[in-house]
Write a structure and sequence with these properties.
Layout (H helix, E strand, L loop, with lengths): L1 H16 L21 E2 L5 E3 L13 H4 L18 E5 L8 E7 L4 E7 L5 E7 L4 E7 L11 E9 L5 E9 L4
């Protein structure tokens, strides 16, 4: 019996030492509490506003920053006049929602859509000449998230290596 207990103890220690500790873990759901969405209609018009959503001056903690590679660009640059991001409709629609971005020439736009544990649900990168791009996102098809608020973290990186960060909260499928 002692040998069996010792064997179980050794196997547990080996399993623990081989587990993946590189990803941050959060003690409970809601560590990141996503609330207060900006409600928009099917045309992109704001119906109500959350002033923390869809801006360009976020300060991210280390977990949020780890969603993106190659951090370290300057975040204290003059704001380009022709840069914007909108998401509509919000709450999201079963036929898809539109992410509309405007950005200067040769700017890179990256986004990560995550749950409250910061587990990545969807990612994307837009590069090109700039101007305006629309991306249709079918978020209602994400399993187990109906009536849940998720978050899109995004950043714009300009040719001068200036970075503008933001986020927007999205309510899944409650229309």
């Amino acid at each position: 019996m002692k040998k069996l207990c010792f064997l179980v103890l050794i196997m547990s220690a080996v399993a623990y030492s081989c587990s993946d500790k590189s990803k941050p873990s959060f003690p409970e759901k809601g560590q990141y509490n996503f609330t207060g969405i900006t409600f928009t209609n099917d045309l992109g018009q704001k119906l109500s506003d959350d002033p923390t959503d869809w801006n360009f001056s976020d300060k991210w903690d280390s977990y949020e920053s780890s969603l993106f590679l190659n951090m370290g660009t300057s975040t204290s640059c003059p704001f380009p006049e022709n840069m914007s991001v909108t998401f509509f409709p919000n709450p999201s629609a079963t036929y898809g929602s539109v992410l509309n971005i405007q950005y200067p020439l040769e700017t890179v736009f990256e986004y990560r859509i995550v749950d409250s544990y910061l587990d990545t649900l969807k990612t994307g990168t837009v590069t090109g000449e700039g101007r305006q791009t629309q991306i249709t996102l079918k978020l209602d098809s994400l399993p187990g998230l109906k009536d849940t608020v998720i978050r899109m973290y995004y950043r714009f990186i300009t040719p001068l290596n200036c970075e503008f960060r933001g986020h927007g909260d999205i309510l899944i499928g409650k229309r």
